[in-house]
Each structure stands twice: as C-alpha cells, then as structure tokens.
Amino acid sequence: MVSYSKKALSVAVCVSLSQLFGAVGAQAQNNDENRLQLEEVLVTGTKRTVAQQDLSVAVTTVTAKQLENTFQNDVTALSELAPNVNLTPQTGFNAIAGGMRGTGFNSILVTKDASVGITVDEFAFNHVQSQFIEMFDMEQVEIYRGPQGTLFGKNTTGGAIAFTTKKPVLGEFFGDIEGNYSQFASNDSDAYKIKLGLNVPIGDTLAARLAVIQDNSDGWYTNDKPAGGEFQSLGCPFPPDPAAEACNNAARSKFPDVGRGEDIGGKDVLAAKLKFRWQPNNFYLADLTFEYVKDRGDTVAAVNETPLANQNGGEGYLWPIAGFPGIGGGDPFSTGQSYTATKVVDIPGGHKIDADGIYLNQTFSFDNYEVKWILGTRSQDEVLASTYTGEAYTSQYDASRNSERDQLQNELRLSTKFGGPFNFVTGAAYYEDDVDFLVFGNLGYFLIFAGPAAEFYRDTYEIQVTSQERESMAFYIDGTYDITDALKLTLGFRHTQDEKDFTRLSLGTAENPVSNFITLDEFKGPHKNPLPESAFGNVVKDDKDFSSNTYRIVLDYNWTDDLMTYASFATGFVAGGFSETCGSAFSCQPYASEENENFEIGVKADMLDGKLRFNGALFHTQYENLQRDTVISIKDAAGNDFQETVALNEGESTAIGLELELNYVPTPNLRIDANLGWLDHEYDSYEPGYDPATLGLVGTPQPFDFSDLEVPYSPEFNGGVSVTYFQDLSNGSSLTYNVNVHYQDEAEINPAPASFQGGTIANPVLKQKANTQLEERTLLNAYVTWEGADIPLEISLYGKNLTDEEYRNSANPVANLWNFTTYGAPRELGVQVGYSF
C-alpha cells in the first residue's frame, strides 16, 4: 500500500504540486472568464475597513484559498508568503520564534514577550508559548511589517499578524468537508487531516457556524540513531585505568542509548470553533465564538548537533566528551529520544495542551459613527515533557514544563464615518495575562558527569516555580485628514501601561542544596508544587511597570486612482519583564523595554488595466535597548558557582531593507506572483557583561564588544516566485496547476559567541556558535487541483520540498553542555479531497 501510494503521488507530482507562496489559483471561484484575476482586498487590522491598496502601510493579505493551498496549518508557513518575514519553530516546542525585518529571538520563556503581535478576530496573543495557532477556518490573514505600536500596541516592533476567521452567514445552509493524506520522505511516515465547516441558519437574524479540524501525523523523525561513541562518565576514571569500565557501566545502567525505531515528533490536534452571528437590525451585530483545542502530540523531536572538538576551533562542549558526539555527517532525521516515562516526566506521553476560549465582538452602527466592543477570555493548560538533546540515553535534562495561563481582553472602540475630510478611530483597551509555571526537571547529566555517586539524581526531580500576573491598559487615537483630494496626513498615538507582578522560587537552600528536589512519591500533580517556600534558596517577589508612548506620522499622495506613494515614521516597543529562568536576586531584576523607530517610503500601484499589481517599501529601522540573552555566573544559596542565561538590555542595531511584491495576470488563465526581501541589519553597539570563562579566558565578568557578530533572524535575501495556470476541460471541469519556489538566505539564531575561543581579555577571539544557524534553503513546491463541473468536488495532488532539501530551522545551545536543533520537513507528497454542499 505504501509503495503504491508513493508511485501514484510521484506521477502526480511530475505534473505539478503545493502552494507555499503567493496567490493561489481559482481565487475568483464564480468568474469563469478569469479565475486568477486580481481582486480588491479589504483589510481590517488597522481597526478601520480599508482597501489594501489605499493603506499607507507595508501589508500582505493572504486569502482563504491561498492558505488552503499551503496544505498545512502551521503559522510558520506565512514566512513564504511575504518578504522579510522569518517565523520559525521554537526549538523543542510547538511555539513561534523569529519575527520580521530582523526582529525575533528563540526563547521558550513563558514570561517573555514576542516581537511580532498576533491577533485572531482581534483577540491578542501576547506570549511566544501561546502563539501556536491552528490556522484553519480562516477568511484571510493580514501581515503588517514594521512597528505597529499605535494600532496594535506593545510587542509589535517587527510587525503584526491579524487573523480573521470565517463568520456565520445569515439565511444560508452550506458546508464543506476536506480530507488530506500525505507521506514524508525521511521515514515514509503518514499524515492525516480532516476539516469540517458547517453553516446553519437559525431564523432570519441568527446563524451558526461549526468548524472542526483533526490533524495527525506520525512525525518525520525516527528514534533509531546508533550510539555515538564510547560512554564516559566524567565522574569515573578514564581508560586505561582498570576501574574505568566497571564505573562507566554502573553509571549508564538501566538506560539504553539507542531508540526502539519508532516515529517521533508527530501531531495529534483536535481543534473546534462554534460561532454564532446575531444581526436583528442594521444597528446591532454580535459575533460569539466558543473555542476548543486539545493537543496530544508527541514530544517535539530534537537533534543532537553539538560541535565536536575539531569544529569551529573547539567550543568546549561536555556532551561529546561523555560519548554523545551528535549527528556528525549522518542523517538528522535519525535521532534519539529519552526513555524517561514516569508520572512526573513522561517523554512518551508527549505534549498535552488544552485550551478553551469565549469571545464576543459587538458592533453598534450609527449614521456617522461605529462603536465596537471586543470582549474575550482564554485559558490554556500545558504539560510539556521534553528531552531536548536528541539522545535516547537519559537526557542531560529531561523536564516537564507545565503551565496554566488565563487571558482577558476588554476593548471599546469608536470609529467615524464622516463625509468630510477628517475621520479617526479611538479606543481604550484592558488586558490581563496571568501564568503559573512549574518545572519538574530530572538532572540526568549528573549520572554522566558524577558517575555512581550521583545515583541520588536518578529518580528525583528538581522543582522551579514561576508566576506572573500582568495588567495592561492602553488608550489610542489614529486619524486621517485629507489636505487635498490627493494628499492625506495620518497621525496616530497610543499610551500603554504594562504592570507585571513576578514570583520566582528556585534552587536549594544554603543548608541543603537539594532541598528543592522531590521523589516520585512526593509528586501531587502536574500543576501542584508540593514544597513550601522555605525549601527554596532563591525566593524573589517583585513588580514593575513598563509604560510607553508610541506614535506614527504618515503622508500619502494619490498620483492617480491606481498609483499611491507614502512616507511614514512609526515607533514600537517590546515590553520589559523578568527572566523566568533567573536564579538570584541579581539576575531576577527586571530588564527594560526594547524600542524602535522606523522611517519608510512606499509605493502601491495597479497597472495594465488591473492586470499588474506592484507594491514596494524601503525602510530604515533603529532598535534600542535590545533584549538579548546572556550567560552570567552567580552563586547559589550554598555558595556554589553556576551559570544561567537571562535577558538583559544590551546594544543598538540598525536595519535597512527593501520589500517588493508583484502580482501579474498576463492572460485570464495565467498568474505570476513574486516577492523579494532584502535586509542589511548590523549592531551599532553590543557590549553585554560576560563571564570570560565562557570564552576560555581568566578574569572577572565584564563587558565585551560583540558588535561584529551577526544580528539574529536577519537573512540578507528571501523571496519567491509562484506560477499558476488555469485550464478549462471539455466536460466543464477544470484543472489548476501551480509551481512555486521560495529562497531564504542563511541567518543566525543565537546572539552569543562561541565558547572557549581564547585570545585575551583585551582582544578575545569571537565567532558565532557552530550549528546554530538558519541554513540557506530553496524550497520547490507544486500542486494540481481538479474541480468538478456538475459536482462540488475538488481533488488536489501536491508536493512540498520536492527536492528533499535538508535544512536546519532552529537551534538552542545550552551553555557549554550541548546544542540541540530541529530541521525543516523533508519532501512531502499528498492528496487532498474536498466536497462542498
């Protein structure tokens, strides 16, 4: 069956296959004369309904059909639909890293704010761990590039993404069902997907819509990597000492170092939305949505890509010395995963996420005004058991990161509809975002480093406790004045007040360095801390207010009805906060907000009687108070030295970039879409306080000049081309063909330099950490879709990454212990069938 499916799909792929970039075929489903025509696109993310081509902001709008033909629900797919957008997975988690225009970071901190704001039906998702969104039942996605501090608020220095889902339609009964099957080249593993959308009228003024998705995959990684070398516990004698073998065997007993050969890293997500729309008259409209998400996917697979001693001049990692040298020249999809399976940390049990939300958006329409009230609440519980290292042996740090998060949003907005030259939108918003976070960690590396004497750590678990309560309030106003019929001035202002109350309990006490450890018998549940506060040597309780005034000034000029140019200045900020991983009163001090200023000129043009659309933007962005992770050395309550990674404000940078987008329909049956992003992003200054020991030097912690390092998430080039052809068949059915290609340059992920490079205090040797880059890659995708004439049936055959390119898409080095990474999906061939009724 597998072999037959692969042959059938391979034949189909030779004809065409998958759309991961650009506009999609058959956008105008009811226009047989031109199925690929350019449409007028209306955007709502600016809190007023405006035609995209009239909006003096760099924005890409992705339609429902375009998203459908990406054949995936992952938000990171948007990276291939717009220039200078680099969204990647968080290493080891189903969350979002990266950003836009050179912003972004790879952080799993539940208290860390993102640099790209995300909203779904105007409900804001504030943190990286809550930004993994099942991208289904979407009407359109608006990708705003550049700081959006005025209209979207905090955490939008890079830009914002506004998702709009499909709404119930009054007076109509209809629906659609779609099924998807595909296979991955790396291990012939399977993926299945089923979507259902159903619209039901309830009288003349009320309608309901049910949208459901079940998304399953076996994962494209396999837990079968061979043992990497001779095991050596750093707590045992080294050969040829005759006691070495017995000591090492005792240290590694009970734990195999080769997996069972099962597929790992798979998905198992059930998500549903039940929506109601009530419109009793032209004055009042209400949209009520109930959301449910149940994720029972696998633990996210990782690859041990720790540099060896002969790589990059040697970086002093301890993991290779212990006998785990990484993938070397091998297959990254053949990896390892820990066997730890207890009620405290259950790696085979995977990642368990449950979320539910209730959202009510109400609109009140007056003759010259519109009032909108947005009210929503969302709860998300997570039990994330992870192994991180890509080894089957008991991991360096098997841990379960468990959190409970509650969000509330209450926003009231007024927009005008005056017939005169001046119109504006103004509003006030209140947000709550509370998270309780609990880590149960199994310090397996002590078994390796300390040998049999460390047996205490085999079945005990370190506890870390963090909580943060946040209240945010904002007031904004944004107005446009028509100076002449052609020239418009837009001014916007927003004041944001962000208050965070932070609590951190970690490490043992001076009297007992392991007082914050528990046994299996002491475990009370994934969200229950069984220890008193007195069991922790680091107890920090603090609060801090972060306020900011952001604004924008825009001039745009309409040379003709189809040609507009604009110039703008806008500001944004990422709120400051506390480092969730901090281990002392010093390192738990709050860091400040990151800010940026953006100058931009742009053009938007529709030409050749609507056959050609061209949008471009040239920008200059200055970032200040950069939030960067840095390694510091501190002492625990017992006086022991250890390192930790915390966020600090260090440095400034300047980004200059160009963005071009083109849509061209030379004939009714042919469409070409292209985008190109160019970015030159460099540090102006970057001198964090750093421990010289990390660089292999002797001395006290002091600032080092790291400004020659590359800024993370700043590839020089990215872009792609998509070609779509529509063909009518003699029986009335049709075929839509698409081939597209997307390129992304190499980019750094980690801002820190490689460890143990040497030199002197005055002139240290600084290199980027090896194996931590987003690798240069070119993805070739294609699809062909058959649409029936007399029956509402669509069948698509598709392929993604047809050349089976192997590329790293995230990485996370852990001090000088090890480095773990993930890789993009290998070639995927699939079939999708959809039926409408």
TrEMBL record:
Q: Which Pfam families does the entry mention?
A: Plug, TonB_dep_Rec_b-barrel
TonB-dependent receptor-like beta-barrel domain boundaries: 309-802
Family annotation (PROSITE patterns): TONB_DEPENDENT_REC_3
Q: Does the record's keyword annotation contain Signal?
A: yes
Q: Which UniProt keywords apply?
A: Cell outer membrane, Ion transport, Iron, Iron transport, Membrane, Receptor, Signal, TonB box, Transmembrane, Transmembrane beta strand, Transport
Signal sequence residues: 1-28
Task: Name the Gene3D superfamilies on file.
Answer: TonB-dependent receptor, beta-barrel domain
Q: Where is the TonB-dependent receptor plug domain?
A: 52-160
The way this protein sits in the membrane is described as: Multi-pass membrane protein
Location in or out of the cell: Cell outer membrane
- Tell me a GO cellular component: cell outer membrane
Q: Which PANTHER family match?
A: FERRICHROME IRON RECEPTOR-RELATED, TONB-DEPENDENT OUTER MEMBRANE RECEPTOR
Task: Output this protein's name.
Answer: TonB-dependent receptor
**What's the source species for this entry?**
Seongchinamella unica
Q: What is the lineage of its organism?
A: Bacteria, Pseudomonadati, Pseudomonadota, Gammaproteobacteria, Cellvibrionales
